[in-house]
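for the writeup, i need someone to sanity check this before i put it in the appendix. the sequnce is what the collaborator sent (i think, or maybe the updated version? ugh). structure was predicted straight from it, no edits. if anything looks off just tell me and ill rerun, i have time this weekend
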Amino acid sequence: MIGRRPRHPLHPTLRTLAAGGRQWARGAGQVVACRLLGGLFLLVLIFSRTILPPQMLHSTSRVSHMGENSLQRLMLITLEFKKNSFSANGVYAQSIARSLARRGHEILVLSAKPGQSQNAVSPKASPAGSTGVGDRGEANKVFDLSGTTRQNGKYAQVEESSSSKAANQSMEIIDEDGVGRALLMDSVPGLIEIEVEVEQEGWGRLDWKCPWQSFAQNISQDVVLQVAKFNPSWVLVVDWSALPALLRLAKSIGNCPWQMAFLNFRIYYLSEYEGDDREKEKQFYLTMESQAVTMASAVTALSSRDAHILATELGAGIAPGVVPKPLFPPLRDDIRMLALGRSNYDELLRTDDWLEGRKFLTCCVRLSAEKNAELFVSLVETLASFLDEQGIVPFLCGGAHGDGAYAGHVKLRLKTAMPHAVIYEGFMGPSQLSELYMQTLLNVHPCVYDAYGMTVIEAAAFAVPSVMHVGPRGAVGAAEFLDPNEGQALALDLTTTVGSLGNAIKRMLLDQTILAQIGFAASKRSLSWNEDANAEQLVSILRSAHSRVFSLI
């Protein structure tokens, strides 16, 4: 039962007094006195259970404010969580819930699940234009990323480490960048999940065609009663798509003494729109995201730039004292375990050691116009002869979800430019991602605008430097976390000509000492920001928020 109060041990002082009294009586031979004292202490203990306030009985107690040691009840509402998770939203939502529960908070997660199971997509990795991995004889070992390890520059099957096995006991998904991931499906004490079944149509999307309406409409009376009984002090709303579900709950329950935090994972109002409904779609996001900001007592974004936009362009009705704040997503526990186990890098490590086995020029984004994946292919076309001379192999990890015609065009161009380039389509779990990044010289993140770019952070965990856009147009959130000015990433204006970009990347690939140094710095920064650090900052943001119960508007 959600509202059931757990049993607590007696206060140590009372327990010591009782034990000490009995010991004194026995030592003095006072058997009768021992019994009398035992009865007396029993009465005291009964009195303490029924009369004394809880804080005198238990070492931790619930308080009404967000104190450092308080056990706060928090509800997380997110369209995507564990069931058939498909994007970075599900990854990050799980991370938030898991880490808050580990801190001792009671967490109720309200999420959606599709009405029918989706067909699984089988992973496959092959050089572009081939039917399998084995078209190049010995070279096929380079592309086999499942259960391989590097030994003197070669690749061999090995027994997985315990951390790798633990990371692989999970559900595989595809994230916002189109890259397959595995989520740790561990059971965390204090974490309760309620799933609302939604229509299958639109599942796998997070835009206005996602099943946001059925998520709100299908909340049953039983769910309403469970939420009312849980009675959260804070409701954490992930993106605009979770807002209608909150409004449905609030309308059904009535008087809700809750505070709301709007956790913005992406500003959809900034998206580029196509088709006849583009103006209508933009207005829809403007309305929904502005309403979320207006209702919130606390607002977070994935970067300072997005926080500023929420406060200005979407903050016309923002409450006094509410200031949107950046909250960087953490490196997930499963990837972090593998990185710590395999990437024992030190800033004094020789460049030759870092270079061992690295030969990929990698790009991990969803194959869509929004992610600007075609820019990577244009760079490969420009650098094809140079890459061949240097023995560098392009690796495009585009996942299974992509815009059909656009994705096909990107793959065809890459196949034409370099027939031996690798195109990985399908799910890529943590151990496969780690093997890819351990073999990567340079990661190219071609997006001009990206709310964050988690693949950049994950690549950095394995000492892979990344090229990201930093320029007058657009922004990438990860470039704020991995600061190019601190030598943690490589900054280029990706809106300039392909020729100039190609020359810049050529110079980077030739200066492998610099690549190694940036990789070391990026790894140190990436590994420093884990799920617990992220949760601590989120709690700090909630604790400092002005007390304000949201109202229906």
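Residues 238 and 263 are 5 Å apart (CA to CA). The longest strand covers residues 106-114.
thx in advance!!
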